[in-house]
Design goal:
The complex is a heterodimer of chains A (617) and B (351). Chain A has 617 residues and is mainly alpha-helical. Chain A has helices at 2-8, 11-20, 24-52, 63-97, 106-125, 143-146, 151-179, 192-223, 238-271, 278-292, 307-335, 344-367, 369-375, 379-409, 415-441, 458-488, 526-533, 555-572, 579-599, 609-614; strands spanning 411-412, 490-491, 547-549, 605-607. In chain A, the strands form two sheets. In chain A, strands 1-2 form a two-stranded antiparallel ribbon. In chain B, helix 1 (2-15) packs across helix 2 and helix 3 packs antiparallel against helix 4. Chain B has 351 residues and is of the alpha+beta class. Chain B has eight helices and ten strands. Classes of the chains: A mainly alpha (617), B alpha+beta (351). At the A-B interface, helix 4, helix 10, helix 11, helix 12 and helix 13 of A face helix 3, helix 4, strand 7 and strand 9 of B.
């Protein structure tokens, strides 16, 4: 209904709808759109990096610009592409999977989205305002505190704004899952993607404050003359690395756990079998999350923490391989004895297993401290983390997009183009990154603007660059596929994959209230239970009645805009007094809209029962 | 540890010969052909962990292949619903316990090696060098020997040399892949590591911690020479007369210009403490100019006139008076004849 109406409305009306929406499904669209945009931007940066490294002592880009590219590639891909796209998938699917009509705090959901958008914008306007951040996505001090210009300032403020949004998203999902599960949906009946959303949100809740604190200290050092990290004035430079990685390591699990959920759904659906060892999967996820907080110093083996600290962190890191291994074998066992259908979504999931296993192997290898003295900060590590982040997160995102596209947009992605995307991206990926393991051991440190002639590194780098073009081709085909599908794609009914979980009982795309009547849950794989033992769909848990829905609001956009403006004030008050106008003006806008939100009663509205009755199922 | 690990290594070297020969990288730069104590210890662990992990990968891939062959949907069983299996305690226990054992196989030698490489109890009886990392060059101060030099680190072969490392600006990381793993060079605390080269040679060193625009150009060399040659070098370096007048007339003019253009405010000749720019005592013997370029008059002239074109973001650019091409040539002539010792990178043989 809503999309048909949307097509009839003008562009302005649709835009206004999206700017003010608090509907988790539209917010998901915006997350996917924003994240997708930044993914392309980060990809372009990656291509520029690979072109620069196609031959020794190349001068495609200058040294300073190269550092900006590598910094922005990392920052963009982690904070502005991977995480928002995952938040998009969670928004699109999790409320449906647990049988809820929206998230617990729809307004906050919208605020989180716009904070991310403006944070990402903040980071990227730096390109046009004197240069992007150039101290690496890790922004190690003193390099970041002494970096000239305002690049790193944009990093600090941009991430602070975007990070606040992510934190809100995490809290929101936690509240949603704790309070809004449909009747009968006990924790141990939740689909695994909802479980991983839950655990990821816990990680966000505990990890992001460490980043916030680190960024605050960095902000004060750079903009207000503090010396938290200035060794000459009694500060401590290593503490930044601790703060960063106390956030940074859980962050990589924030990136990987949700896609573990995605793959669990896909393997089960396309093998027509329930997930093997569901309980073990849930607890393995928890264990990974818990251990994820205990291992941050493995990023710092060469810092000089001493053999005791290094050994402890090495063992803790290796321990993570155990629950991860359990997951891999459980997925294999899920397919074992099943009836495996191979389509685009499943291809990504199948491509993930060998790729991620290699990433896990090298993960154990880098955890071995003394071996890491060689790997550390070389292309070996670059290869390792691309194997887990691309081979895990990006494959998972593509898998999830192919799997849930029909649910989100009502149309199924073109299968031929889907396969072409997978194969070119998959082959390109291994071409690009497998050789990098060897480049690292052959003496090529990471973040090198050029490599010298006659060092035996030419061929490997050339292969790597060729591979990158394959990946770029694959992504381009996916974009064409998305557009093609929007125009000509095959329309689907509610349950195109013979699904097992609740999101497949509602229309594709779902009405804005999701479920006319909240379903009653009778077991794990709620829909499958009904298909095999019941009437084919869950019994409603409530009589048909008025549905209470939240009102749209423009305030989240204004609040985020205020912080965006204030951000410029913070950055430029170092040079110009007029910047204080931006600083205080922006904060006034944000605080003013917060005040408005607090004082103005907004009780939402009700969809009357008769309107629901008149709508077809 | 060396016994059985050595056997594993020998075994693997046989198996990996093809790989080692083709993809090892450049001699004296690669970590895959170790010629020093640290690099060898790391290499043994690399091989051990690779083997264990390949075993895991193969196990996963075998199951994976069987699944894809046996359980793909067949045409004639569209309506077949597989048995919904909840789990299997025995299987799940097996794939929990076996990885733990495999990890222990890696973990125990890892911890042993970690403590081994961190042991600096013998430091006081050995050669100690104060290493200072700077954007984008390395300074070496031989403790108790009154020798200061930059970029080329001379060490006696077969001896443990202790490096006490600190940075003057941002964080760097000292890495000579063929003889040792890396250690960060921090601005706030002194990190100690030791290196020991098994063979004479000129080993490539690289900065491994992102340190600014010329991070990729912050190369240096470790020159491992025999004990006698090292002693000779030490003696020669200690006997340097920083004010010695060159024999060549052009070089003499160069020396005068060197003082006139205020080069001395940043660069020392002789064993004065670490300064703003590299120490030039044995500049004429350097293996490379600025760590990366061939050391000859043309390149040196270019450096003196426009260092930015060679190392972007270096601290020399803009901090010295204008130098004409003619003057640069004379200064270059002077610097290139600073060859106080017969022991040079060539003494170490191959590079």
């Amino acid at each position: 209904m809503s999309t048909v109406a949307a097509q009839k409305r003008g562009f302005g009306a649709v835009l206004w709808d999206y700017l003010t929406t608090v509907d988790h499904k539209k917010i998901a669209h915006l997350y996917l759109f924003g994240g997708g945009f930044f993914f392309l931007l980060g990809g372009l940066e990656a291509m520029a990096i690979r072109i620069q490294l196609i031959q020794p002592e190349n001068d495609f880009v200058s040294a300073g610009f190269y550092n900006e590219l590598l910094t922005m590639h990392g920052t963009t891909m982690i904070f502005l592409a991977a995480m928002p796209i995952l938040l998009g998938l969670m928004n699109a699917v999790m409320p449906l999977q647990i049988g809820a009509r929206d998230v617990a705090f729809p307004f906050l959901n919208s605020l989180g989205l716009w904070l991310f958008m403006f944070g990402g914008l903040m980071l990227n306007v730096s390109w046009f305002l004197g240069g992007a951040p150039d101290a690496g996505w890790t922004a190690y001090v003193p390099l970041s505190t002494t970096s000239p210009g305002h690049g790193v300032d944009f990093y600090v403020i941009g991430l602070q704004i975007a990070g606040a949004g992510t934190l809100m998203g995490g809290i929101n999902f936690l509240a949603t899952i704790v309070t809004m599960r449909a009747p009968g949906m006990t924790y141990m009946r939740m689909p695994l993607f909802s479980w991983t959303t839950f655990i990821t949100s816990v990680l966000i809740l505990f990890a992001f404050p460490a980043l916030t604190i680190g960024l605050f200290l960095l902000m004060f050092d750079r903009m207000f003359g503090a010396a938290f990290f200035d060794v000459g004035l009694g500060g401590n430079a290593i503490i930044w690395q601790h703060l960063f990685w106390i956030f940074g390591h859980p962050e990589v699990y924030i990136l990987i756990l949700p896609v573990f959920g995605v793959f669990s759904e896909i393997f089960a659906t396309f093998s027509k079998k329930r997930l093997f060892g569901y309980t073990a999967m849930v607890f393995a996820t928890m264990l990974i999350a818990f251990l994820g907080f205990m291992v941050w110093a493995h990023h710092m083996f060469t810092v000089g923490l001493g053999p005791v600290a290094n050994s402890i962190f090495a063992i803790a890191t290796m321990a993570i391989a155990v629950p991860t291994g359990i997951k891999i074998f459980n997925w294999l066992a899920t397919m074992w004895g099943g009836q495996v259908t191979i389509n685009s979504a499943m291809l990504w999931a199948l491509g993930f297993i060998p790729t991620f296993t290699i990433g896990g192997m090298t993960g154990i290898m880098v955890a071995s401290v003394v071996a890491d003295y060689q790997y550390h900060d070389t292309y070996f590590v670059v290869a390792h983390f691309h194997y887990v982040i691309v081979g895990g997160t990006v494959f998972g995102i593509f898998a999830g997009l192919h799997y849930w596209w029909p649910k989100m947009f009502g149309r199924i992605l073109n299968e031929a183009m889907g396969k072409l995307t997978f194969w070119t991206f998959f082959i390109g990926f291994h071409l690009t990154f497998f050789i990098q393991h060897f480049l690292g051991l052959m003496g090529m440190p990471r973040r090198y603007w050029v490599f010298l002639e006659n060092q035996g590194l030419d061929l490997g780098n050339q292969i790597s660059t060729v591979g990158a073009f394959f990946m770029a081709f694959g992504v381009t085909v996916f974009l064409i596929n998305a557009v093609y599908t929007a125009v000509k794609g095959e329309k689907v009914a509610e349950d195109p994959w013979d699904g097992r979980t609740l999101e497949w009982i509602t229309a594709s795309p779902p009405p804005h209230y999701n479920f006319k009547q909240i379903p009653l849950i009778r077991g794990l794989d709620a829909l499958w239970v009904e298909k095999t033992e019941g009437k084919g769909r869950p019994t409603p848990a409530e009589p048909l009645g008025d549905i209470h829905m939240p009102n749209s609001s423009f305030l989240p956009f204004i609040m985020s805009l205020g912080l965006f403006i204030a951000g410029f004030g913070f950055i430029y008050q170092v040079d110009y007094d007029w910047a204080y106008i931006l600083l205080f003006g922006g904060m006034a806008v944000t605080l003013g809209s917060m005040l408005t939100r607090s004082l103005k009663d907004d009780h939402g509205y009700h969809i009357p029962k008769d309107e629901l009755e008149s709508e077809a199922d | 540890m060396k016994g059985w690990m050595g056997k594993i290594r020998a075994f693997c070297l046989l198996g990996l010969t093809a790989l080692v020969l083709s993809a090892c990288g450049k001699e004296n730069l690669t970590a895959l052909d170790p010629k020093g104590y640290g690099a060898e210890t790391s290499f043994n662990l690399i091989i051990l962990s690779t083997i264990v992990m390949l075993f895991v990968l193969v196990s996963v891939m075998v199951v994976y292949t069987i699944v894809l062959i046996r359980y793909r949907k067949k045409k004639d069983q569209e309506d077949y619903i597989p048995k919904q299996v909840e789990g299997n305690k025995t299987l799940e226990t097996v794939w929990t316990v076996i990885p733990i054992i495999l990890l222990l196989i890696i973990a125990v030698p890892t911890v042993t090696a970690t403590f081994d490489l961190a042991d600096d109890s013998a430091a006081s009886d050995s050669v100690n060098v104060q290493v200072t990392g700077n954007q984008y060059w390395w300074h070496f101060n031989y403790e108790g020997k009154e020798i200061q030099t930059s970029q080329d680190l001379y060490i006696p072969v077969g001896e443990k040399v202790y490096l006490n490392m600190k940075s003057s600006d941002v964080i760097h990381s000292f890495w000579v892949p063929t003889i040792s793993g890396k250690m960060d060079v921090n601005p706030e605390n002194e990190n100690t590591m030791y290196i020991e080269a098994y063979e004479e040679g000129v080993y490539w060193g690289k900065c491994a911690e992102f340190c600014g625009p010329s991070h990729s150009l912050m190369d240096f060399k470790v020159i491992a020479v025999s004990q006698e040659e090292f002693d000779q070098w030490v003696q020669d370096m200690q006997n340097v007369d920083p004010e010695a007048e060159p024999q060549d007339a052009v070089a003499q003019e160069g020396q005068a210009l060197f003082q006139e253009k205020n080069c001395m405010s940043c660069h020392a000749i002789g064993s004065s403490p670490a300064q703003i720019g590299p120490n030039l005592t044995n500049f004429g013997d350097r293996s490379k100019l600025a760590g990366i370029e061939e050391l000859n008059k043309e390149n040196l002239k270019q450096w003196i006139m426009d260092p930015e074109s060679i190392k972007p973001g270096n601290k020399m650019t803009g901090n010295y008076p204008d130098v004409s091409e003619d003057e640069a040539g004379k200064i270059a002539e002077y610097l290139l004849q600073l060859q106080p010792s017969d022991i040079t990178p060539e003494s170490a043989g191959k590079e």
